[in-house]
Amino acid sequence: MSLIVFPAIDLKQGQVVRLAEGDMARATVYGDDPAAQAMLFAGQGAAHLHVVDLDGAFAGDSVNGEAIGAIVARFPGHVQLGGGIRTRAAIERWFDIGVARVVIGTAALDDPDLVRAAARDFPGGIVVAVDAKDGMVATKGWADVSTTSVVDLARRFEDAGVAALLFTDVGRDGLLKGVNIEATVDLARAVDIPVIASGGVKGIADIHMLALHARSGIEGVITGRALYDGRLDLSVALQVAAAA
Question: Which of 29, 53, 97, 155 has the maximal Cβ count within 10 Å?
Fold first, then answer.
């Protein structure tokens, strides 16, 4: 069972950026051509891509639609998209343009029936984001922290048919501190839904450790800043992940 490596493209006002701890004021710009960045990842062997509409996450609706459309049109693999997707119409719109998976975060907490219906109608297409601040679910672009624990939210969707859970330790995201392996594996073992790790990847050791836990329910890992800063070689990461 190999680990899926998802290179990340986070979009802010049409640019490729990375945030620190989800703070829009702490954005590092890495480029102004998201589709070209997607093709660079494809050229290094990526078959999956994780795209986030950061502006959309705060606005509650798509803001970077043009850039997303360009990425989907050019990237030859599977695009997983999150950020401000909180209505049935938005979900359908992204599947219509060719997105392979839609990530739902805030709406998973606020409107679980929406997620359940979408998971039923789009088999294998819905991912639930369980973003954690000190173990509690963070929503609305991580600006709000709920009183619901990550495990409690995840368990609400065990029988819903969602494709995966996307677990992010917000306190590590974009900081190159290393993935919270323990919390990620604990979540994977607590539910019967595959888990995608996110937040803090700093190098190949993170990929290796997660790959060792693939049989525990870790489906994949999302990495961004480590790739952009040259701390992680995507082709090497893909080889390590495939060897799991």
Answer: 53
Instruction: Count CB atoms within 10 A of the CB of residue 163.
Output: 22
DSSP 100-145: SEEEE-HHHHH-HHHHHHHHHHSTT-EEEEEEEETTEEEETTTTEE
| Whether residue 111 lies in the annotated active site | no
pLDDT, position 141: 56
pLDDT 10s digits, 143-187: 567 778 889 999 999 999 999 999 988 766 555 778 999 989 999
Residues 39, 126, 83, 43: what is their CA dihedral angle, to the nearest 10 degrees?
-10
| Mean pLDDT across 205-213 | 95
Lowest mean pLDDT across 25-34, 55-64, 150-159, 161-170: 55-64
53, 131, 169, 206: the active-site residue: 131
Task: State the DSSP string of 13-65.
Answer: TTEEEEEETTEEEEEEEEES-HHHHHHHHHHTT--EEEEEEHHHHHHTS-S-H
Active-site residue, 144 included: no
CB atoms under 10 Å from CB of 194, counted, come to 18
Q: What is the helix (H) or strand (E) element at residue 225, kind and residue range? A: helix 225-228
Q: For residues 26 and 18, give the distance between their C-alpha atoms in angstroms, rounded to a whole number.
A: 8
SS3 of residue 92 by DSSP: helix
89 Cβ contact partners less than 8 Å away, ≥ 6 residues apart: none
- Which of the pair, 133 or 154, is modelled with greater confidence? 154
